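[step 3/7] fold_predict: job queued, chain A
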Amino acid sequence: MSKHEFNIAFDQPTKYRESGKFVFKVFPNLDRLSDDELRQRIASKRTKRGWLDRSDFPPGSPGFLVLQAKTLMSALERLPREESVGRFPEIEMHDDGSVALYRSKEQLSEHPSTTEYELMKRLGSAMTVAMMSAFACELAMKAIRLTQYDDAQMSHDLWKLYQDLPAGCKKRVEKDYSDIQSIMKNSRHTFGKWRYFEFNIGDRALSAMIDTDRALALSKSARVLLDEAEIMGLSYSVKLRASQRATKIDDKHQHLHIKHDLYSNSTESPPR
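[step 4/7] structure written:
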């Protein structure tokens, strides 16, 4: 047994190098509610004003929220690292919040009209990673809250949603990622306000939007929270089915009709 496995088994702190990768993750074995117990708990729930409850979502929604978050994070993996959350040595931040992309004379002579286009691509990629990771964090935390307490705040504020998580959940995710509290605080409005470029987010909003460290931190937070959603008994399945039908036109030609259907399902077995 490795040192890390030993520490995990006895609930002791474990540290990993920033460059290290998880080989596997040990999930705790929790006592789960039965389907009947879950239905009884949901039926007796009374929700506070300004909060979402089960009636605001179709059946099985906690699992589908996790599926949506997982889908977003899977899509972000397809972005080339150098175009999404990589370091941008050519980009310089100015004190007034403006941004400049610097190119050598040789680069400008080869591509004189592509500087702004390249800047927009890189800014867009970085913003996409940060905003979609923040949204995935929101979905995962609302799913966890719904499956445990049958309600969730009607908010995009990551810090508020994090504070509403069960104590056991926060303890586990903070062991996985010790900085997650500060990330939720400092990035609390990343999705809630950035998506509209709202004026009141500050003069240096654009600089924050392309902060690659923040994008990386939000992406890591989303993955840790999605692991916690799995621990809380939320799972899903996605299947693609295809069918085809041929229609004869004449002896040499026919039409081929192909239909694709996407089926998804979610399950929920929260801890007691």
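[step 5/7] annotate
The two ends are 31 Å apart (CA to CA).
Residues 115-149 form the longest helix (35 residues).
exit 0
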